[in-house]
């Protein structure tokens, strides 16, 4: 393979296999850092939940479980389309790859849209709402646990916010891949960018898989 | 090899399992297992199962070199170390003080906490 | 393109320095060697800023009263010193400069696996550094480099957000560098270069990169938490809501203690190379040194709570952390033992890099052993937040980290620039720096033992003599660094041509020319020997008949 040096093989690599393996190893190492990044938030969540369990249950009950479930489904579908996008590139179907990428972008955007609906319900609770759930000076909840609930919502917004930022970055990369894929850049010999982005996208999905029960489902029984 | 072509059927099977598990976790969240901890345990087990499905099939870990298993595993181990040692502090704060002046009578009694506001 | 002006008669060989010399060829270079030099220049600027801040507050400490700075300004100066020196000098120092330059060469590769990410890391680093500088110019930060809550989130009246963002962004640059290191070491080794033929510098870089990857994201999310608390009023660590500032300390030290190993492990790698070269021996206990680097990287993550003995951390946790802390001393001591065993019956020569390596050995032992005082619960209660701590970590970070950096800089300077610096002056400077360092920091142990707390600009009169010692030591240090800057700059133009292997050292980096060609080797090297083959003659031609222009002055 090394004798011909195709344009998609960077000059400092000996062959395509080395390039592929480097890319995969690199993204997995990056995902370690992501685990630790979210790990810090999970740690904070666990410590405070241990201190204020009632407040945590109260806060969780104020989240919209229907929208949360719908979003989980949307994200899982997007993971499927992402996996199929990689597969299409592998079996040399650039057009299908582009379409699956587009589907992933649409689903990711839908997730963010639903998230925005949820956020705005917290930001603008309406004139006669009995509570304001944005942490900070305006936070208001008529409950003996209101301070703890405010902590819960600090974590809710930081965790889902960080997750949303990862989604936005992911959608940005996917959009770029989509443009490239339309030009037929990715095929059976060269699909590293699609594969690597796929791994990132699946990871963001995994984060949500844990955020969903931890934020939406506690204290429902 | 590192870069397998996984059949669509496998992807779909994983996808449907993920869906089922999602609805299952919502359903069981409304059941009362008698102890709050049990609810958490079930929810976390389902989440872990889902995460493993994504990791192993969607992320191709099943077909990957051992080094990637090691990397994925080490990140979990490190997170557990971080959380575990921190909880070693929080979970023992009251416990150790109460034990200390029971076992060692000459240790001064802890200062009374100021009344809550 | 303009041609290179060179005083030598023979036309210059093509190398990474003279292949292209436009500004954009530097700023957009994907060559790891050029990126290493970009880092070197920027880090030296940060070192200058951090050092200048230190000189200012050392001057203030000459007298017991406040003459030069008000308390708030004093706080800003030591915070600038801390943030700049830790986040923008020490953490990137050896990996980003020497590691960037040498790692691919030592591996026999053309470049890192991801050259674009490597270049991006420099830009990201500069962006973070710029935010840090802006925070300082716009009025400074007075929280100390640790950003402890709730002061940083609720009370500090300064540019905390800017400084925190700067540190956050600089963290990304570390992560990019670390990622490149690990992938490159795994995937880009030359044929025949097995894991146990890797130089120990590479092992040290590998261990460092692991620490960076596992630790840095945690401090990143911690800084994000400070950011959202300060900027949006979220109450994450706010005691009024039941939040716990000690949680911040846990998260912060989970990274910031291993960060000490990010500074020390690379220095240990450099010292291994230097000691091996100037004893002309294969390192004693190669595998022990290699694995102890990994052991330090791993155990370093289990000990962070020893920074929190006098916080509200439970006694049980403190006991655990204290106990675990003693374990870090074991791999470190093993390394020491093996270095000393290498020196034993070696043909030791006292060149300037070796003097810095010796400086490292002595100073780091003092720094490490005083660490045991601080990891012992009973004594720490006395020493906590005194000058004893300040002296301890300067012995570790400056005596260890900076000495290692200088050893490496002097060792590989001829390789990086193709020129030799004047050795006699370099030896003199090494001694000046060693003396200046001890004069600065040894008195601080005394100050700490007698109870002088850190971070105060006024103090009782009985401490004045020791403070005068310390400040004059800082002046000597400053003098030493100035001479070094002068002779290194001088050597760029007037230094003797170095030849491929001026130290008669072993390793792939000495088998290519100095400075190396753009792709490091004219053809991919094949490694057939075990590591550090000092008993065999050098593969490269010996320096005496290396090249006709070797005699050029």
Instruction: Report the major sheet of chain C.
Output: none
Distance between the termini of chain C: 27 Å
Order of helices and strands of chain C: HHHHHHHHHHHHHHH
Write the H/E string of chain A, N to C.
Answer: HHHHHH
Instruction: Report low-confidence residues of chain A grouped into runs of 5 or more.
Output: none
Number of helices of chain A: 6
Q: What can you see in these coordinates?
A:
The complex is a heterotrimer of chains A (221), B (117) and C (553). Chain A has helices spanning 16-51, 53-61, 65-90, 94-123, 146-182, 192-217. With 221 residues, chain A is mostly helical. The model of chain A has no long low-confidence stretch (mean pLDDT 92). Chain B has 4 helices and no strands. Chain B has 117 residues and is mostly helical. Chain B has helices spanning 8-29, 36-58, 66-90, 93-103. The mean pLDDT of chain B is 85. Chain B starts with 7 loop residues before the first helix and ends in a 14-residue tail after the last helix. In chain B, helix 1 runs antiparallel to helix 2. In chain C, helix 3 packs antiparallel against helix 4 (115-137), helix 8 packs parallel to helix 10 (315-343) and helix 8 (245-279) packs antiparallel against helix 11. Chain C is globular. Chain C has 553 residues and is mainly α. Chain C has helices at residues 23-27, 32-60, 71-107, 115-137, 151-155, 160-187, 200-232, 245-279, 286-299, 315-343, 352-375, 377-383, 387-417, 423-449, 464-494. Mean pLDDT of chain C is 92; it is low at 1-8 and 541-553. The longest helix of chain C is centred in the N-terminal third of the chain and has 37 residues, at 71-107. Chains in contact: A-B, A-C, B-C.
């Amino acid at each position: 393979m090394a004798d011909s040096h195709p344009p998609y093989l960077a000059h400092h690599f000996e062959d395509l296999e080395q390039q592929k393996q480097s890319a995969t190893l690199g993204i997995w190492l990056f995902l370690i850092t992501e685990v630790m990044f979210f790990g810090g938030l999970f740690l904070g969540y666990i410590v405070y939940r241990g201190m204020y369990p009632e407040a945590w249950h109260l806060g969780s009950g104020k989240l919209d479980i229907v929208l949360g479930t719908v979003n989980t489904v949307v994200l899982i579908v997007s993971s499927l389309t992402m996996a199929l996008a990689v597969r299409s590139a592998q079996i040399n179907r650039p057009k299908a790859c582009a379409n699956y990428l587009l589907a992933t972008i649409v689903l990711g955007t839908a997730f963010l849209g639903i998230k925005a609906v949820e956020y705005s319900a917290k930001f603008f609770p309406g004139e006669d709402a009995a509570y304001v759930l944005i942490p900070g000076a305006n936070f208001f909840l008529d409950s003996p646990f209101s301070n703890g609930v405010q902590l819960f919502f600090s974590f809710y917004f930081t965790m889902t916010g960080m997750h949303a930022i990862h989604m936005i970055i992911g959608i940005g990369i996917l959009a770029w891949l989509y443009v490239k894929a339309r030009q037929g850049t990715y095929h059976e010999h060269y699909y590293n960018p699609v594969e690597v982005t796929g791994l990132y996208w699946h990871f963001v999905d995994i984060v949500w898989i844990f955020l969903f029960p931890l934020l939406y489902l506690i204290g429902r029984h | 090899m590192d870069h397998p072509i996984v059949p669509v059927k496998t992807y779909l099977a994983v996808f449907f399992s993920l869906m089922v598990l999602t609805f299952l976790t919502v359903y069981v969240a409304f059941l009362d297992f008698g102890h709050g901890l049990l609810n958490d345990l079930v929810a976390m087990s389902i989440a872990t199962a889902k995460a493993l499905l994504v990791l192993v099939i969607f992320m191709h870990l099943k077909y990957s070199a051992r080094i990637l298993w090691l990397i994925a595993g080490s990140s979990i181990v490190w997170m557990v170390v971080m959380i575990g040692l921190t909880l070693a502090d929080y979970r023992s704060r009251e416990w150790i003080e109460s034990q200390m002046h029971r076992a060692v009578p000459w240790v001064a009694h802890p200062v009374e906490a100021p009344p809550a506001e | 393109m303009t041609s290179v002006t060179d005083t030598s008669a023979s036309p210059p060989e093509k190398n990474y320095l003279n292949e292209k010399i436009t500004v954009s060829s530097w700023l957009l270079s994907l060559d790891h060697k050029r990126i290493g030099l970009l880092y070197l220049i920027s880090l030296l600027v940060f070192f200058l800023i951090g050092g200048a801040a230190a000189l200012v507050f050392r001057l203030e400490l000459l007298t017991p009263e406040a003459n030069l700075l008000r308390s708030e300004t004093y706080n800003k100066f030591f915070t600038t010193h801390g943030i700049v020196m830790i986040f923008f000098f020490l953490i990137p120092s050896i990996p980003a400069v020497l590691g960037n330059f040498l790692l691919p060469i030592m591996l026999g590769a053309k470049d890192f696996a991801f050259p674009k990410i490597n270049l991006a890391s420099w830009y990201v680093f500069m962006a973070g550094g710029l935010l840090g500088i802006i925070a300082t110019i716009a009025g400074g930060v007075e929280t100390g480099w640790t950003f402890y809550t709730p002061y940083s989130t609720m009370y500090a009246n300064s540019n905390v957000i800017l400084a925190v963002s700067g540190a956050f962004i600089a963290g990304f640059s570390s992560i990019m560098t670390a990622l490149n290191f690990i992938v490159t070491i795994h995937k880009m080794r030359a044929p025949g270069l097995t894991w146990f033929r890797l130089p120990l510098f590479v092992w040290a870089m590998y261990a460092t990169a692991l620490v960076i990857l596992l630790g840095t994201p945690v401090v990143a999310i911690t800084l994000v938490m400070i950011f959202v608390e300060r900027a949006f009023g979220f109450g994450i660590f706010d005691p009024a809501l039941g939040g716990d500032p000690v949680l911040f300390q846990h998260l912060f030290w989970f990274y910031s203690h291993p960060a000490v190993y990010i500074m020390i492990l690379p220095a240990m790698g450099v010292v291994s190379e230097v000691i091996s070269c100037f004893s002309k021996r294969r390192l004693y206990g190669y595998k022990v040194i290699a694995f102890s680097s990994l052991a330090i990287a791993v155990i370093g993550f289990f000990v962070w709570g020893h920074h929190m003995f006098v916080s509200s951390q439970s006694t049980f946790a403190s006991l655990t952390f204290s106990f675990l802390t003693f374990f870090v001393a074991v791999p470190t001591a093993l390394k020491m033992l093996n270095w000393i065993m290498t020196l034993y019956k070696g043909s030791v020569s006292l060149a300037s890099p070796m003097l810095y390596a010796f400086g490292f050995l002595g100073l780091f032992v003092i720094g490490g052993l005083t660490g045991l005082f601080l990891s012992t619960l009973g004594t720490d209660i006395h020493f906590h937040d005194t000058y004893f701590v300040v002296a301890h970590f300067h012995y570790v970070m400056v005596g260890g980290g900076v000495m290692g950096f200088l050893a490496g800089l002097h060792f590989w300077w001829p390789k990086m620039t193709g020129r030799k610096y004047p050795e006699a002056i370099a030896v003199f400077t090494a001694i000046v720096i060693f003396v200046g360092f001890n004069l600065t920091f040894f008195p601080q142990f005394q100050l700490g033992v007698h109870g002088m707390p850190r971070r105060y600009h006024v103090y009782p009169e009985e401490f004045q003599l020791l403070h005068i010692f310390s400040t004059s030591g800082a002046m000597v240090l400053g003098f030493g660094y100035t001479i070094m800057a002068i002779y290194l700059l001088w050597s760029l133009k007037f230094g003797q041509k170095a030849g491929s292997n001026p130290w008669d050292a072993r390793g792939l980096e000495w088998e290519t020319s100095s400075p190396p060609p753009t792709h490091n080797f004219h053809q991919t090297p094949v490694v057939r020997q075990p590591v550090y083959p000092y008993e065999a003659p050098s593969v490269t031609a010996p320096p005496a008949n290396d090249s006709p222009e070797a005699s050029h002055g």
